[in-house]
Amino acid sequence: MNQESTHDKSLSEVHGSIDTTNSSKKWTKIFSFLGPAYLVSVGYMDPGNWATDLAGGSKYGYSLIWVLLVSNLMALVLQSMSARLGIVRGRDLAQANRETFPQAVNFVFWIFAEIAIAATDLAEILGMAIGIQLLTGLPLLIGVSITVLDTFLLLYLQRLGMRKIEAFILVLIIVIGVCFLFNIIIANPSFYDIIKGFIPSLPNAADLYKQSGIISPMPKETALYISIGIIGATVMPHNLYLHSALVQTRKIVRSSKGIRQAIKWSIVDSAIALNIAFFINAAILILAATVFFKTGRTDIGDIKQAHQLLSPLLGSSIASILFAVALIASGQSSTITGTLAGQIVMEGYLSLRINPVVRRLITRLLAIIPAVLFIYYLGESKVISLLIFSQVILSIQLGFAIIPLIHFVSDKKTMGEFSIKPFIQIVAWIMASVLIFLNAHMVIDEISVYFNSSNNLSIKILIFLTCIGFTALLIYSIIYPLIRKRSDDSSIDMHSEAIGLQDINIPTYKKIAIALDFSKNDAILMSAAIGQASSEKEFILIHIVESPSAILHGDQTADYEAKKDAEQLSFLVNELLQKGFNARGILGYKERAKEIIRIVQEEEVDLLIIGAHKHDGIKDFIYGTTINKVRHKLKIPVLIVNP
Q: How far apart are CA 640 and CA 236, in angstroms?
């Protein structure tokens, strides 16, 4: 299909909906570029990150603020590369993967991405539910159920347009920031100690506690372990898919200058938004350091515990309320962006668009059902374990998003003058290696805990084989684009000289197949077929019967739909015969794509003509998949007509 068709555009309903080209005033023009990164930034301050920030601050004071800064710089580089991919190629990360990797590998990537998004949504659900419980006292199970309602909020915002979604998210970010600002003002942290926290160090707990005069048990987690948790939980895979699509909501001038300008302002947008995320994460850590570490409460291990102790230790009842409000705002903002990422992943990998309500409910139920079952059977006290598990799932997926992204933005053939420079490539690969190593370290630690506590040999073997499979696929994702690029380059070198028109063979199509769906578009397809035919032409009209009876009984079916389809096909054949054309019709049954391929191959057709149908929802899935399968399986020309 045409790459520029509406169907193939990322977030097609809002693609290019914000015009950056008509603004005469400089500040208005700049403002029109800003927005996508704010939606991305909420992933860096979601409830899943709160635990590591609270642990770092309560156990090691201000000394790990520098780790947050390093994490933020890593995120800025990766998100800028994601935006660059979307701006230059007009492709989100999922679409770029689909066009590069084999179909089977892309299917696995899609499954991983969907699991990662469900895991992200799980963290947001639990965060919101905990916030609702802390604020209202409702049981966690009811809080989880309430989170279904935000489905309708997102649908309402989508109808208002992309700018309204961005504004809503920005308001939630401001709410989070204001809540923590007030709490920090109440806590009155040491400015000098905060500045010292930017000096890289990994303190020993015993020395640190002695210097600070703290009498408290030594933490089980070392400063290195918590630093790994902070960095490892920073970059979320769905954010890389999300950013590469969101930048395409801006309509830009497709010139070298226009693209360069869009890249520049996307970097500015990312820098502002991610620095806001950094300040909020730093605020959580500073609050924990001031309220808990300074008072010797180094045992704070979860969000609920932190909430319960804030007000007593600060001497203000509003502190805990603000904490809970910030938690709800964090969960709500993150879940909206997670849904958009789910839409991008599904459309990008599968060319599948479904109703937004269905998409949202599927995403939400994939997260809510495990959460409800977990809380019901194991109790609220084990919720933190579920949060940790969701972060482990995200860690596994991260490499499959970062590695292809670096390959794509480094490729001069597809990115041209906008490919990243060799120095940035080196920095990106170092960062990817660090992030993958740290996340692998986190996963291995969790697996080790299970191996030490369980005697189930079959589960252990399954986990071991799964780890081998993940590692093999990770290595494949590194090597395959390089092999493909080398193959493409050699192909280009072999045919570097242009071929003159005197050396080409103009084909003649004597046997032309037309895939019909008995709609008003059939006449357009048949006209296109007549235009492509030679003097000795034969037309084969193909229609596939897809009734329930045909699916079950194949060519033995005799239901009403099959009879009517046979009559309609015969009518169209007679129409062509009366006009002096040689034509015959063939009915296929069951699966549309497979039957078209079979008939075309058996009849030794020279050219297939098929329609590019503009449908939404399930019809889009049926016809889009048909075209892709057919054109990849056949070795003859396939003419796709856009009615």
A: 38
Per the structure block, which two tokens stand in for 366?
A: 């994939």
pLDDT at residue 577 greater than cutoff 70: yes
* Range scoring the smallest mean pLDDT among 59-63, 204-208, 282-286, 336-340: 204-208
Classify each residue of 345-366 as buried b or exposed e, where b means 16 or more C-beta atoms within 10 Å of its C-beta. Answer: bbbbbbbbbbebeebbeebbeb
CB-count exposure of residue 371 (10 Å: 0-12, 13-18, 19+): buried
pTM: 0.71
State residue 541's pLDDT score.
Answer: 92
Would you say 415 and 408 are in contact if contact means Cβ atoms under 8 Å apart? yes
- Are 327 and 46 within 8 A, CB to CB? no
Query: For 578-614, how does the pLDDT look when each residue is reduced to its tens digit (9 = 90+)?
Result: 888 889 999 998 788 888 999 999 998 989 988 876 5
Domains annotated on the chain, with CATH: 21-483 (1.20.1740.10), 503-641 (3.40.50.620)
Residues belonging to the chain:
643
266 pLDDT more than 90 = yes
β strands within 520-565, DSSP E: 533-545
Q: Enter the DSSP assignment of 6.
A: G
Radius of gyration of the chain (CA): 29
Angle, vertex CA 21, rays to CA 17 and CA 24, nearest 5:
125
Cα-based torsion angle of the residue sequence 389, 394, 400, 402 in order, rounded to the nearest 10 degrees? -140
